[in-house]
Task: structure prediction
Amino acid sequence: MHVNGNQCPQTSICHSMTSRKLSSRSEQLSPFHVMDILAQAKALSQQGREIYHLEIGEPDFATAEPIVDAGIDALKQYKTHYTPALGLPELRAALAAHYDRKFSLSIDPRRIIITPGASGALQLAILCLLDAGENVLMADPGYPCNKNIAQVLAAEAIAVPVDADNNYQLDAKSVSQHWNSRTRAAMVASPSNPTGTILPRDQLASLCRFVEKKQGCLIVDEIYQGLVYENDDYTALEVSDECFVINSFSKYFGMTGWRLGWMVVPEFYVDAIDRVAQNIYLAPPTVSQFAALTALQAETQIILDARRDEFKKRRDFLLPALEQMGFEVAVKPQGAFYIYANCHRFTDDSFSWVKNLLVEQGVALTPGIDFGNHLANIHCRFAYTQSLEILQQAVDKIDAFIRT
Ligand SMILES: Cc1ncc(COP(=O)(O)O)c(C=O)c1O
Result:
């Protein structure tokens, strides 16, 4: 036994804590500030306070019944063994049929890789595209885990500030300004978390052209596909076959806890991804894959579309209500279930402001700081993953808070 490199003198059992060490990559991972908010919300609710959860990034609806039944059937049939690392062939084929039905696209099922959530796909993408020390460009504000995944895998994430004039999305100009000799990829999410904005088709096309010219790769996160309210719900695969397109059963399909996603990649990468997936997690969850077959069926999609319509009603209620109170939302969120609002009229320290709002009125939001640094201190995110009734009560509480 060694303590700081010295022999432990008396005993072979050493109780000293000093030999424990965290890897610097895990130590450097930044925590989510919303976790503080969640902990406080929990403490307040244990004291009997009513809490309005507008910080939660997952649908409030339980997984649709036909999907749950399919999961139960799979278990009853003891479909409990590993599947191939790239996923169940039937599900890969069903997703190819889904692209054909929804977007009239013919995608070879071999290019469709089933993953443990979009999170698993994002890790595979970074592992297959970037070496240590290379970098990937991403929007600020953006989904916080992307930066952390890159960092933990020894790559670097370069934050590119985005604003209302580019729809809070990367474009060829901003990407060209940040691209350097160690850049291998750029990453976008459409609709975006936290802004709910969509990358316009022509903006995506010029972004693809720029990245391809640089012999890099564009990673397009389409996890909120299906939760698009009035715009045309397209896929980047209509624009280019060279992108890595990431998707998930979490959001539109309402299966967050089933941990299932997928990724469509150029044929060239499939074997490498197979090897990486085999070694990192062996296979995506089997029962979830069988359940997902039912998620893709037309009868289930009727239920899921009705839920999408409900999200739209909530957005159509919450957005004007926030604007009336003095929050500014420069681009109307067209998808996902978030509103990223500028709260500069009330604070220049949105993290403290969000904490005070929770303590005083019981409304939980996510502070801008969780999505990057660019103007983060004057923004916060509202998730409309609650019923209209709860949203109305939350709005009254926020109104009372800003009036005091
Ligand atoms: C933009 C974005 N990408 C990826 C994920 C990860 O989703 P999952 O791993 O549940 O599929 C999330 C989750 O909130 C997200 O908002």
Summary: Confidence is low (pLDDT under 50) at residues 1-11.
